[in-house]
Design brief:
With 546 residues, the protein is an alpha/beta fold. Helices cover 31% and strands 16% of the residues. The chain has 3 domains: 5-55, no CATH class; 163-273 and 279-332, 3-Layer(aba) Sandwich (Rossmann fold), CATH 3.40.50.150; 357-545, Vaccinia Virus protein VP39 (Rossmann fold, 3-Layer(aba) Sandwich), CATH 3.40.50. It contains 17 helices and 17 strands. Helix 8 links the parallel strand 5 (218-222) and strand 6. It is found in: Endomembrane system; Membrane. Residues 48-57 have a biased composition (Low complexity).
């Protein structure tokens, strides 16, 4: 027999059924009130909220320096985004003892002082500060537009790199000497008693399989001095990545880059070098003062990792080491079988095609996915067309005759560098750590490059590049760090009179353009996707201590 609602309420015999009934009435009321809202308003609200949801970045990947805060705090994201809309950014000049040549991740003296050990060159490794650089670096007094290539290989302006200590310290080894307003590089060195050209010819005769510029194209020079070895190998179509730690010999890498020779700051310490496995055709060390047998041979194992199978390690040193008892004991142990600490080799090992064919041949390390080869060749065609049809056109306003040191900030397969290979310049190809790893492909093509996180400062001196190039880099950067901080880093490493060439979305182009204009750069935009900026000599008046 049915029970009426009134009886249920009156008698309260079924409290559970009563509660359920009230809940159903409430839900029905909510649904009816929601359906009465305009669907147009709902759609509009959703569309307006979508950009905000897209701006929320996913958790960033593991960074090269975990101690560095590279993702803006939640409360700072609006501040970062609003900066890009503010044309009137206020800039100050960095002030401090090392301000002119400041490298944030290598000159973090507070972090260096707190190190528990320096035994393994920890003080020469990267120690990035928590905050990115907030000021602009001053120019050296009397700074001039650099001497053009190829004259710069042999002489540079002293005022651009005013470091006289190396001249005095190495005066007997013919590294560098001062002549009037110039620093002159005679081509000598600790190991180059008869000159670097004679030394290169000696290696070629001793090891005929090297075949400079054909078989051996990409070389790493460890402890390079002022990089004369790499500079003169350019005559043989060999590109050399010269590296040394900062201040081991005063400003040697800065001298190299001012000369227009490929070089970077790095050290064989406790961290891996920023290169992929099996990258270099040859590794060279001329009295580079690296203890290869330290820590059970870890430095040597690191070279083994980055040396291509079949590649050569050339180590030259004065005979003083030959009779040293310690070194004799080390080499007497050289026949002990190596253990599992060695890096694994590829299942299929093949040497790249001879240069220059290897530049556009299928790279051995290319992905085995079905369409990888087609994508690679299409990428090569794309960059060849873009460079010839757009980049080299006079309407962009880039004076390519003044361009020597070039950096591709997100190089991909190295297509941009390949497309300008015939010009008298060199390209440092950078693979961002947050993107696809294609650096092995770049080395396979006979080009050079490094891994880097653009939320941190680069391992190079200020004012070392003539042109910075990027293609759709900033849309990814802004999800992890501040675009203004990246622009400050670009200002740090670009020479006055140098150019930036950026291809990106309209939004990114407009945002970056406003920041660069606040730095007093001249900016032009082409086809709403190409930004060309030229850095001037302007520096702000106010100062900020670093």
């Amino acid at each position: 027999m049915a029970i009426s609602v009134q009886n249920l309420i009156k008698e309260r015999k079924y409290p559970f059924v009563f509660s359920l009934f009230v809940l159903l009435l409430f839900v029905t009321f909510i649904l009816l009130s929601t359906s009465s809202q305009s669907p147009i308003n709902f759609t509009t609200d959703l569309a307006q909220s979508r950009p905000q949801s897209q701006s929320q970045s996913s958790p960033p990947p593991v960074l090269s320096n975990p101690s560095t805060q590279t993702t803006p705090p939640e409360e700072d994201r609006d501040r970062f985004s609003s900066k890009t809309d503010d044309v009137n950014l206020s800039w100050r000049l960095c002030d401090g003892v090392v301000a002119v040549d400041y490298i944030p991740c290598l000159d973090n003296f507070k972090a260096i002082k707190s190190l528990k050990s320096r035994r393994h060159m920890e003080h020469r490794e990267r120690h990035c500060p928590d905050r990115s650089l907030q000021c602009l670096l001053p120019l050296p007094p009397g700074y001039k537009v650099p001497v053009p290539w190829p004259k710069s290989r042999d002489m540079i302006w002293f005022n651009n790199v005013p470091h006289p200590k190396l001249v005095e310290y190495k005066k007997d080894q013919n590294w560098v000497r001062k002549s009037g307003d110039y620093l002159v590089f005679p081509g000598g060195g600790t190991q180059f008693k008869d000159g670097v050209t004679h030394y290169i010819e000696f290696i070629g005769k001793t090891l005929p399989k090297i075949k400079w510029g054909k078989h051996a194209r990409v070389i790493l020079d460890v402890g390079c001095g002022v990089a004369s070895f790499g500079g003169y190998l350019l005559d043989k179509d060999v590109i050399t990545m010269s590296f040394a730690p900062k201040d081991e010999h005063e400003a040697q890498i800065q001298f190299a880059l001012e000369r227009g020779i490929p070089a970077t700051l790095s050290v064989i310490g406790t961290k891996r070098l920023p290169f992929p496995d099996n990258a270099y055709d040859m590794i060279h060390c001329a009295r580079c003062r690296v203890h290869w047998d330290a820590d059970g041979g870890k430095p040597l194992l690191e070279l083994n990792r980055i040396l291509r199978p079949g590649g050569l390690f050339v180590w030259s040193a004065t005979p003083v080491y030959r009779d040293d008892k310690r070194d004799q004991n080390v080499w007497n142990c050289s026949y002990v079988p190596l253990d599992s600490c060695l890096a694994l080799l590829p299942a299929v090992v093949s040497w790249p095609a001879p240069w220059p064919q290897r530049l556009n041949s299928k790279p051995p390390s290319l992905s085995t996915k079905r369409d990888a080869e087609e994508i690679f060749y299409e990428d090569t065609k794309h960059w060849s067309a873009l460079v010839s049809d757009v980049y080299l056109e006079s309407r962009l306003g880039i004076d390519w005759s003044r361009v020597r040191n070039v950096m591709d900030m997100n190089a991909g397969y190295g297509g941009f560098a390949a497309a300008i290979i015939d010009r008298p310049l060199w390209v440092m190809n950078v693979i961002p750590v947050s993107g696809p790893d294609t650096l092995s492909v770049i080395f396979d093509r006979g080009l050079i490059g490094v891994y880097h996180d653009w939320c941190e400062s680069l391992n190079t001196y200020p004012r070392t590049y003539d042109l910075l190039h990027s293609s759709f880099l900033f849309r990814n950067i802004t999800q992890r760090c501040d675009m203004t901080a990246v622009a400050v880093e670009m200002d740090r490493i670009l020479r006055p009179g140098g150019f930036v060439l950026v291809q990106d979305t309209v939004k990114m182009i407009n945002s970056l353009g406003q920041i660069l204009r606040s730095l007093h750069w001249s900016i032009t935009i082409h086809q709403e996707q190409f930004l060309v900026g030229k850095k001037g000599f302007w520096r702000p008046d106010g100062k900020m201590r670093i």
